[in-house]
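Consider this:
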Amino acid sequence: MKRRRSIALAVATATVTVTGLTGCGALDKAMDCVKTADAIATSVDKLSQAVSNASNDPTQIEEALNSIDTELGNLKNTTDNADLAKAVDDLNKGVDSVRTAVKNGDTTPDIKPITDAAAEVGKVCTPG
Protein backbone atom coordinates (compact mmCIF):
# COMPACT_ATOMS: atom_id res chain seq x y z
CA MET A 1 0.00 0.00 0.00
CA LYS A 2 2.90 2.36 0.79
CA ARG A 3 4.41 1.74 -2.67
CA ARG A 4 1.07 2.58 -4.30
CA ARG A 5 0.84 5.86 -2.39
CA SER A 6 4.43 6.74 -3.30
CA ILE A 7 3.79 6.09 -6.99
CA ALA A 8 0.50 8.00 -6.91
CA LEU A 9 2.12 10.97 -5.12
CA ALA A 10 5.00 11.08 -7.61
CA VAL A 11 2.55 10.95 -10.49
CA ALA A 12 0.33 13.67 -9.05
CA THR A 13 3.36 15.91 -8.53
CA ALA A 14 4.55 15.21 -12.05
CA THR A 15 1.10 15.98 -13.41
CA VAL A 16 0.94 19.37 -11.73
CA THR A 17 4.52 20.26 -12.66
CA VAL A 18 4.30 19.14 -16.27
CA THR A 19 0.91 20.76 -16.83
CA GLY A 20 2.16 24.06 -15.49
CA LEU A 21 5.36 24.08 -17.53
CA THR A 22 4.17 22.97 -20.95
CA GLY A 23 1.10 22.46 -23.08
CA CYS A 24 -1.34 19.78 -24.12
CA GLY A 25 1.27 17.20 -25.10
CA ALA A 26 2.62 17.20 -21.58
CA LEU A 27 -0.88 17.03 -20.18
CA ASP A 28 -1.60 13.97 -22.33
CA LYS A 29 1.60 12.31 -21.07
CA ALA A 30 0.74 13.19 -17.48
CA MET A 31 -2.74 11.71 -17.83
CA ASP A 32 -1.28 8.55 -19.39
CA CYS A 33 1.09 8.36 -16.45
CA VAL A 34 -1.68 8.81 -13.90
CA LYS A 35 -3.80 6.06 -15.45
CA THR A 36 -0.84 3.75 -15.87
CA ALA A 37 0.61 4.30 -12.41
CA ASP A 38 -2.76 3.77 -10.73
CA ALA A 39 -3.47 0.53 -12.59
CA ILE A 40 0.07 -0.72 -11.99
CA ALA A 41 -0.03 0.10 -8.29
CA THR A 42 -3.32 -1.77 -8.01
CA SER A 43 -1.90 -4.72 -9.95
CA VAL A 44 1.26 -4.94 -7.86
CA ASP A 45 -0.83 -4.72 -4.70
CA LYS A 46 -3.08 -7.58 -5.87
CA LEU A 47 -0.13 -9.75 -6.77
CA SER A 48 1.65 -9.06 -3.50
CA GLN A 49 -1.47 -10.05 -1.56
CA ALA A 50 -1.87 -13.17 -3.67
CA VAL A 51 1.74 -14.22 -3.02
CA SER A 52 1.26 -13.58 0.71
CA ASN A 53 -1.86 -15.75 0.73
CA ALA A 54 -0.54 -18.44 -1.60
CA SER A 55 -0.29 -21.03 1.16
CA ASN A 56 -4.03 -20.63 1.81
CA ASP A 57 -5.06 -20.48 -1.84
CA PRO A 58 -2.37 -20.88 -4.50
CA THR A 59 -4.91 -20.12 -7.24
CA GLN A 60 -4.95 -16.47 -6.10
CA ILE A 61 -1.57 -15.90 -7.74
CA GLU A 62 -2.87 -17.11 -11.10
CA GLU A 63 -6.01 -15.01 -10.73
CA ALA A 64 -3.94 -11.93 -9.87
CA LEU A 65 -1.64 -12.55 -12.84
CA ASN A 66 -4.66 -12.87 -15.16
CA SER A 67 -6.04 -9.60 -13.80
CA ILE A 68 -2.70 -7.87 -14.33
CA ASP A 69 -2.51 -9.23 -17.90
CA THR A 70 -5.93 -7.73 -18.63
CA GLU A 71 -5.07 -4.36 -17.09
CA LEU A 72 -1.74 -4.18 -18.88
CA GLY A 73 -3.35 -5.05 -22.20
CA ASN A 74 -5.81 -2.23 -21.72
CA LEU A 75 -3.06 0.19 -20.74
CA LYS A 76 -0.93 -0.64 -23.74
CA ASN A 77 -3.90 -0.06 -26.01
CA THR A 78 -4.71 3.33 -24.47
CA THR A 79 -1.27 4.94 -24.32
CA ASP A 80 0.63 6.38 -27.24
CA ASN A 81 3.65 7.24 -25.12
CA ALA A 82 6.64 5.07 -26.08
CA ASP A 83 8.24 5.18 -22.61
CA LEU A 84 5.00 4.10 -20.95
CA ALA A 85 4.51 1.39 -23.55
CA LYS A 86 8.01 0.07 -22.73
CA ALA A 87 7.22 0.07 -19.01
CA VAL A 88 4.04 -1.91 -19.76
CA ASP A 89 6.12 -4.36 -21.83
CA ASP A 90 8.54 -4.74 -18.90
CA LEU A 91 5.61 -5.42 -16.60
CA ASN A 92 4.34 -8.05 -19.00
CA LYS A 93 7.77 -9.72 -18.94
CA GLY A 94 7.67 -9.66 -15.13
CA VAL A 95 4.23 -11.24 -15.15
CA ASP A 96 5.45 -13.93 -17.54
CA SER A 97 8.42 -14.61 -15.25
CA VAL A 98 6.21 -14.98 -12.18
CA ARG A 99 3.72 -17.12 -14.11
CA THR A 100 6.55 -19.45 -15.19
CA ALA A 101 7.84 -19.70 -11.62
CA VAL A 102 4.36 -20.59 -10.36
CA LYS A 103 3.90 -23.22 -13.09
CA ASN A 104 7.22 -24.70 -11.98
CA GLY A 105 5.88 -25.09 -8.44
CA ASP A 106 7.14 -21.90 -6.77
CA THR A 107 4.48 -20.78 -4.29
CA THR A 108 6.40 -17.64 -3.32
CA PRO A 109 7.72 -16.29 -6.63
CA ASP A 110 9.99 -13.28 -6.83
CA ILE A 111 7.84 -10.30 -7.85
CA LYS A 112 10.80 -7.91 -7.96
CA PRO A 113 10.74 -7.62 -11.78
CA ILE A 114 7.16 -6.38 -11.48
CA THR A 115 7.91 -3.92 -8.67
CA ASP A 116 10.97 -2.70 -10.60
CA ALA A 117 8.84 -2.08 -13.69
CA ALA A 118 6.31 -0.21 -11.56
CA ALA A 119 9.13 1.98 -10.24
CA GLU A 120 10.18 2.65 -13.84
CA VAL A 121 6.73 4.03 -14.55
CA GLY A 122 7.27 6.47 -11.69
CA LYS A 123 10.55 7.57 -13.29
CA VAL A 124 8.94 7.98 -16.71
CA CYS A 125 6.19 10.08 -15.20
CA THR A 126 8.55 12.40 -13.36
CA PRO A 127 9.61 15.43 -15.40
CA GLY A 128 13.31 15.76 -15.68
Notes: The chain is about 80% helix and 0% strand.
